[in-house]
């Protein structure tokens, strides 16, 4: 659901509408500035960290990088267009209106599809650990198809119903001009797509939870059968690490839903005439749901920085690299999985055999075993 689809629903007097907009102007530009600066910096860090750190180049991480690309597109196109529409006339003409404005829907839908793809990818890796996993090449191909197909299905057709017209805020803005019943059909179709994505993602993570519960039982039985307390302790640590990975993904999904779904539900309830709002109620409600949507574009970098140790380290390396600090040159190499295994290898010969046995068991069940090149750290 785009902001442009909802702004034309205002029916009350222009004077009251403009007065309310003026009162919210400072808060609006403060939020825009905060989201834009933090979002651009954070998403650049996410993309750079994943692309430059070899051990982070896995299927799930490439999908997360795709989320960052979609957020960058929204910050560079959708947010500036929203600001322009509230301070001046649309400056890009009819052609720009038809081709630029629909892109905000593209970025949002790509994010929805990508989150669904991450959930399905996690389910396949955990529920079917012995089956061949999708290669990085195929992941890149899937990402390219997501962008292409979504553009052909949503922004391209929407270009035919976009027009520059006078808005109640007093400016000429780019908005959708639907034929009779066209708006209702569009909102119902897009809402159905959103809720289908939500349902699929929730079902996939439910399957992940069931698979991890069964995995925990199998590994515990294997460890108990071999009668090694050291093995059981190491396996428990590995399972906790896998659980943290899934929790991180679930937090990203939940934050996305909490910031995006209110606008979708708001537009759907208005179109179905379930909500009957005054001008002030409409403006305040729209202000809240729109700015929740904008906050989503800077949320993922914050989540990754707070919850993922590997991402924090990658961010630090990127920042130090940009500052030209030679002390951090080669830092990703020091964090390689080979070096980590060497550092954690026991020194006593009798402990080394137990360590290698535990590694062999956990590798089979590890959530991080994403492709044939070996286990990789997931974020």
Overview of the molecule:
The chain has helices at residues 3-7, 14-23, 25-52, 59-87, 93-99, 103-127, 136-153, 155-158, 182-226, 229-271, 279-296, 299-307, 309-322, 331-334, 337-344, 349-365; strands at residues 162-166, 172-176. Helix 4 packs antiparallel against helix 6 (103-127), helix 6 runs parallel beside helix 9 and helix 10 (229-271) runs parallel beside helix 16 (349-365). The longest helix is centred in the middle third of the chain and has 45 residues, at 182-226. The protein has a single domain (14-323), classed as Rhodopsin 7-helix transmembrane proteins (Rhopdopsin 7-helix transmembrane proteins), CATH 1.20.1070. The chain is an all-alpha fold. The chain has a two-stranded antiparallel ribbon with strand order 1-2. Helix content is 75%, strand content 3%.
Question: Termini separation (Å)?
Answer: 29 Å
The percent range for helix content is over 70%
Average per-residue pLDDT, rounded, comes to: 75
What's the CATH H-level homologous superfamily?
Rhodopsin 7-helix transmembrane proteins
Number of helices, counting only DSSP H or I runs of 4 residues or more: 16
> N-to-C SSE series?
HHHHHHHHEEHHHHHHHH
Spatial sequence of strands, sheet with the most strands: 1-2
Keywords: G-protein coupled receptor, Membrane, Receptor, Transducer, Transmembrane, Transmembrane helix
Family: Belongs to the G-protein coupled receptor 1 family.
Membrane topology: Multi-pass membrane protein
GO molecular function: G protein-coupled receptor activity
């Amino acid at each position: 659901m785009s902001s442009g689809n909802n702004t034309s629903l205002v029916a009350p007097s222009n004077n009251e509408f403009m007065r309310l907009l003026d009162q919210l102007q400072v808060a609006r530009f403060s939020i825009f500035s905060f989201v834009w600066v933090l979002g651009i910096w954070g998403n650049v860090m996410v993309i750079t960290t994943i692309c430059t750190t070899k051990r982070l180049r896995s299927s799930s991480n490439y999908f997360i990088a795709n989320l960052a690309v979609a957020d960058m597109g929204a910050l560079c196109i959708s947010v500036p267009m929203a600001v322009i529409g509230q301070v001046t006339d649309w400056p890009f003409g009819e052609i720009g209106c038809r081709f630029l404005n629909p892109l905000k829907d593209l970025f949002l839908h790509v994010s929805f599809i990508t989150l669904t793809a991450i959930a399905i990818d996690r389910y396949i890796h955990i529920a079917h650990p012995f089956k061949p996993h999708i290669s990085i090449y195929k992941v890149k191909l899937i990402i390219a198809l997501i962008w292409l197909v979504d553009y052909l299905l949503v922004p391209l057709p929407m270009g035919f119903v976009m027009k520059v017209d006078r808005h109640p805020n007093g400016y000429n803005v780019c908005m959708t001009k639907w034929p009779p019943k066209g708006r209702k059909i569009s909102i119902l179709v897009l809402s159905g797509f959103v809720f289908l994505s939500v349902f699929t993602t929730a079902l996939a993570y439910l399957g992940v939870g069931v698979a991890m519960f069964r995995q925990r039982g199998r590994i515990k039985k294997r460890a108990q059968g071999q009668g090694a307390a050291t093995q059981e302790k190491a396996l428990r640590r590995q399972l906790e690490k896998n659980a943290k990975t899934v929790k991180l993904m679930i937090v990203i999904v939940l934050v996305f839903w909490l910031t995006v779904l209110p606008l979708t539900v708001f537009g759907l309830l208005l179109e179905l005439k379930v909500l009957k709002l005054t001008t002030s109620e409409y403006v305040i409600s729209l202000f809240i749901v729109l700015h929740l949507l904008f906050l989503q574009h800077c949320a993922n970098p914050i989540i990754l920085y707070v919850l993922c140790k590997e991402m924090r380290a990658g961010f630090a390396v990127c920042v130090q690299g940009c500052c030209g600090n030679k002390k951090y040159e080669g830092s990703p190499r020091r964090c390689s999985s080979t070096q980590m295994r060497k550092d954690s290898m026991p020194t006593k010969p009798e402990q080394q055999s137990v360590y290698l046995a535990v590694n062999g068991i956990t590798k089979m069940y590890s959530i991080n075993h994403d492709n044939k090149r070996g286990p990789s750290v997931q974020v």
